[in-house]
Amino acid sequence: MWVLMPLAFAGMLLKVFRQQLSSLWSALVPLFSFLRTFWLAGPQRKQQQQQQQQQQRKESQAEDLPITPTSVNYHFTRRCNYKCGFCFHTAKTSFVLPLVEAKRGLLLLKDAGMEKINFSGGEPFIHDRGEYLGELVKFCKVDLQLPSVSIVSNGSLIRESWFQHYGDYLDILAISCDSFNEQVNVLIGRGQGKKNHVETLQRLRRWCRDYRVAFKINSVINRFNVDEDMNEQIRALNPVRWKVFQCLLIDGENSGDDALREAERFVISDEEFDGFLDRHKEVSCLVPESNQKMKDSYLILDEYMRFLNCKNGRKDPSKSILDVGVEAAIKCSGFDEKMFLTRGGKYVWSKADLQLDW
Description:
Layout: H1 4-64, E1 71-75, H2 99-111, E2 116-120, H3 131-143, E3 148-153, H4 160-166, E4 172-176, H5 182-188, H6 197-210, E5 214-221, H7 231-237, E6 241-246, H8 270-279, E7 286-289, H9 291-294, E8 300-301, E9 306-309, E10 316-320, H10 321-324, H11 326-330, H12 337-342, H13 351-354
Parallel strand pairs: 1-2, 1-8, 2-3, 3-4, 4-5, 5-6, 6-7
Antiparallel strand pairs: 9-10
């Protein structure tokens, strides 16, 4: 019996140690598993960090590269004879640069890489009965030899004599038309007494064909026209492009305390805009631009030749290119070149390349 007691005690001790070792092993297994995973993931994590650092270096280098002003929108006047309720470039000044200074700025832009210039306003034909605009168009095509010169206008002040003098130098004329219902045009602010906006549009279409200018239509989709069906009219006019914009709020222009317009009542939702696009999806010349696509994807020069930065929902001006040059001024433009390309900002924009059946 005394001989068996040490053996029994040893068995009890062994049993206790086995339980403790089992508990310890159970506790260590997750730790070993984590350490194994951590050790194996080390090289992979290091590779990911290196890839992230390379991407950050590329983005930093891209930010340091100068922006090329391939396509520029020059709003040389803010004055307009219409009162569109959603206008995002309102008549806050009546200033227009002297012609010689405007030409100097356009030459600076050409030397910086500009290929396309678009003249807009306000209403660009309002100043000097369109002669100032005509001289800029001619200068850009003859002297600067730009591939594309275009105009955006409401069309109400254009005369056939202007085409006779300057039509050869113009690639594209874009006419703003938001509805083919004249009562809707009046509600929007495009009404002008006895003049009929739709009739003006049709007359300009004929003149563009007669004088070999590519014809384009711009429409702002808003509360008053979002349910309209324009398929038949657009096909009949057959523009090279039908730009369809979603109504956009810009603080200080058509929204806010210091704005000349109150565009809130014109605003539509993204879903409503998509519904309009879906209704017209069979129109081959349709080029849609939602608020997201428009924002920061345009290089806009104001009447002082300052780039306007819209990143903060306002138009914050740079210094004028006439004072600091294009490279310095364009850094403050807020221009998103990727979105410019995504929205189709670069297209066949010379009438020589469009090969139109006049």
